[in-house]
Amino acid sequence: MLNLSALIVDDSAIVRTQLRGEIGAVAPECHVYECSGVLEAGRFLLRSVPDVLFLDLNMPHINGIELLKRFDAVLGSRRPPIVVSISSDMSPPTLQALKERGAYALLPKPFDRAEVAMILLRVVTMVQRRRVMIVDDSATVRTVVRRIVEHSRFNLDIEEAANGAEAIRLVRSQRFDIAFIDVEMPGINGLEAAGELLYSSGETHVVLMSGNGDEAIRRAAAHIGVQFFLKKPFYARDIDEVLNSLYSLGDTAFVSHRTPETFEDPDLQSVLWLDD
């Protein structure tokens, strides 16, 4: 397991010690820090951002939700930690507040070692650096998509290509984990570029983007091996759903799997029917 850093924020020293022990049993190399309250955590985050933040919500004076509300002010342009709530409060208003503030998962008290291990394994997958290419003939759209992708919980290095030909040239000379490709482009369109990328680079996942949700386009994309299709406009949570599915991370309280594009072949179905 890669080296990780974790910050535990809870007003109970007993709870912090228990969670530190569970993390140490699963990932001995993980650097674990502790804060007893939100103000102390805020000062910590001004200096350093951990990979994962285990946050109790029900603390005296200032609760954990208030810290999440102030994330942008505290973190600035730095990538936020992956937030795991360790509160025992599972009420609908609390869950909704956590979802709105970008929480990733819940870890109920008392702590279960298997659940701690699962969360840490997911965090390891998410913090690994991945190279992403955004392909669109509009510089404005590329900027918008870049901002959305940058808000993903995953650790993504982003490069841009202005057309299909440039995307193909980049993939032949460099390694990319994921390519977000617009369908409607002049010259080599998104479907053609996707087909070439999938043929020439088996390591690159392709996600097609389009303002047109036409089933014929989606069927053609699925036929050449594109697993995911994002209809514009989309948001950071949609990116996270796609990446959770691509890397088989499973559902969490706040992030679901995006279902891969699949279409039944009507010709094959008729053959199967005749065989019956």
| Annotated CATH architecture of the largest domain | 3-Layer(aba) Sandwich
Helical segment tally? 12
Q: Please report the distance between the alpha carbons of the first and last residues.
A: 51 Å
Q: For the record, what is the CATH homologous superfamily label of the largest domain?
A: Response regulator
Q: What is the CATH class designation of the largest domain?
A: Alpha Beta
Count of discrete domains: 2
| SS content category | alpha/beta
Helix proportion of residues, in percent?
40-55%
Low-confidence stretches: 267-276
The major beta sheet can be summarized as: 5 strands, parallel
**Strand residue content:** 15-25%
What radius of gyration results from the CA coordinates?
A: 21 Å
- What's the shape? elongated
